[in-house]
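Minutes, project huddle
Topic: does the predicted pose make sense with flavin-adenine dinucleotide bound?
PN asked that the exact inputs be recorded in the minutes so nobody has to dig through chat later. Recorded below.
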Amino acid sequence: MKRVVVVGGSLAGVRACETLRHEEFSGDIVCISDEQHAPYDRPPLSKKFLSGEWDADRIALRRPEAIAELNVQWKTGSAAVRLDTKSHTVTLADGDTVSYDGLIIATGGAVRRLHNQPNIAGVHVLRTLDQAAALRDDLAEGSRLVVIGAGFIGLEAAATAAQRGVQVTVLEGLPAPLIRALGPDMGSAVAAVHERNGVTIRCGVKVARIIGGDRVTGVELSDGEIVPADTVLVGIGVAPATEWLESSGLTLSDGVVCDASLCAGPTNVFAAGDVARWPNTLFADIEPLMRVEHWTNAAEQGAMAARNLLATSKGEPTSAYAAVPFFWSDQFDARIQFLGRTTVDSHAEVVAGDVVSGRFCAMYVTNNRLTGVLGVSMPKLVMPSRALLSVNTAPDDARRWFTEKQASA
Ligand SMILES: Cc1cc2nc3c(=O)[nH]c(=O)nc-3n(C[C@H](O)[C@H](O)[C@H](O)COP(=O)(O)OP(=O)(O)OC[C@H]3O[C@@H](n4cnc5c(N)ncnc54)[C@H](O)[C@@H]3O)c2cc1C
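Predicted holo structure (tokens), as shared on screen:
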């Protein structure tokens, strides 16, 4: 293998490049990124970067010297528009083609927009550094921000804006905030920190359209009510960035479908991070194919995809990526941590602390076993529970573990 091409120069892509070099791959590495910036970290975009506490230098994923040491040919500002797995080439938007012996797809997620979202001043989405800077600059103290969508990124941005003295209203179509990630009860419990800090969250409301002339003035709901706004953030999630792969012959179904080793079909093509969907053997009984939009997953998969590509090229066995998904979120003074998975059939049960105090831990039971643990400002209890999620743990054993752990704390 003489040349590896990595498409997507963010977390999963950078980890892939680093791992290739760490594993002593001495051939060419070409990293194609449609962004102009050097690789940066996304979590601060809704937190310390949005608040203005950190600038762009502070969120660089690596120091410039470390990036230079990787000896990677960076093609920034270049979008991949087509993959041909027969001729082993990636076509760029300017018509150039780049050939590969090994390919790692790390194109992450593309932000979703409303079907009728107007392109007017004051209307924002939040995925990239430029988008975060535009939103940050638009949030004036005392102004009114409406966030459409009560998912993690929308709620983090809501918290940050409120801490900057902005009046924030969050509109959510589902009956509770964070419902997809945490279920209705825990979603409401976590989001209670917003109510305590003056953010209005309205659930079960349908947005009809965003209104305004040159600049946004409000959000119209399906019953005709207008919620006034100086700024609107549309936070309705991301879709895996697979458009450029449509003619590739790879299996695309809510992401690039991979095997357990993250191989996307052809033996020299792997995928990693937010774009990849793969069978996580630890959760096969509740979710046969999983796609995860969290930092730790992207970092670990980037490394694993690179190691498995190298192993394949040497005719060595590959390893399966089996892991307990983990994410964190900071909203006001609450540190939210979640390990594992939930489905619509999961049952959540508080096992430590209490919801009213805003400090608690809940376990999720799905298919009669422990599949998730949520902690709000209880890091010492949440993180050690990872071991329980790596094996099949019965609900009673999990309850006992939490009781004993608290008693010994
Ligand atoms: C505002 C925000 C806050 C977050 N906070 C948290 C948090 O607190 N905790 C947590 O666990 N996770 C958090 N995340 C999620 C985490 O940042 C992502 O899971 C992670 O960035 C995924 O990395 P990735 O490399 O797979 O994809 P991405 O970071 O999406 O990177 C993909 C890159 O590929 C580029 N690309 C896409 N298509 C093409 C193409 N055709 N050609 C060339 N380049 C292309 C994209 O522009 C992008 O630069 C947050 C995300 C955001 C946006």
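Observations noted during the meeting:
- The chain has a mean pLDDT of 96.
- Residues 121 and 215 are 5 Å apart (CA to CA).
No decisions taken; revisit at the next huddle.
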